[in-house]
Design a protein that fits this description.
By secondary structure, this protein is α+β, with helices and mostly antiparallel strands. It contains eight helices and 15 strands.
Amino acid sequence: MVLGNLACVTHGSAMVYPGEGFDALAVLETVEGERCTALHGVPTMFIAVLDHPEFDRFDLSCLRTGIMAGSPCPIEVMKRVVERMNMREITIAYGMTETSPVSFQSSYDDPVERRVSTVGRVHPHLEVKIVDAEGRVVPRGQPGELLTRGYSVMRGYWGDEAQTRASIDAARWMHTGDLATIDDEGYCNIAGRTKDMVIRGGENIYPREVEEFLYRHQKIQDVQCIGVPDQKYGEELCACVVLKPGITSTPEEIKEFCRGQIAHYKIPRYVKFVDEFPMTVTGKIQKFVLRQMMADELGLVTEKTA
């Protein structure tokens, strides 16, 4: 069953397609009504379901597994899905349209901490590596760009040979543009997009690291961190925060939550409260749009991005 790109499977392995648009209440009603055992979607959909005002009145004990994918999956959200939605065997998958379906996936029998904090290990019959800016393979545990090669990599972009060459090198390695690490056991962690990394006065800030910390704040429903222009440091960090329903807060409260807990240069210079994030039709957050929106709102000079 698909509810606006969020899919469910019933006990009898039947699939139901009730609507074209995502609606959190419809998801809750259908999971309970159809006794679904699996639920698939992007993180923003799971967040909306968990924080729906009527969440507690639904019986989700039928749920067992599912897949969270499409964008980085916050650790705190994964923990809530396991605990509150009964999805003890949920897994995370990582891939791109250009490397469909996925390159990494956690397993239902992986330790819970591995399933909520990594995207698992590489799929069979695929190759992956992490490289630095010069294309050299980095040591295990060190961040770099994730490259993948194998049967799942596309042949190329239709009618765009230049873009194909820019993304797939002569050895058929697909350059994903994602920052990642792979540990000694083969588990991969996605730190974010290379173009999303914020460079503040020479210090590299990975937005996802700050986002993961802010998700621990009891008032925050969702958060996205972006870089905005700054005359002194080149870039400053801006946290765009969606608060839980009926909750109020201040930028200073959010910053105070960070002080003494994360490095001072990672504390967002700006905290902006928003009702929602710009997204694609499949629920992926468009950070490049968010960056321009915040730069405009803050009156900061930046080049327009396409």
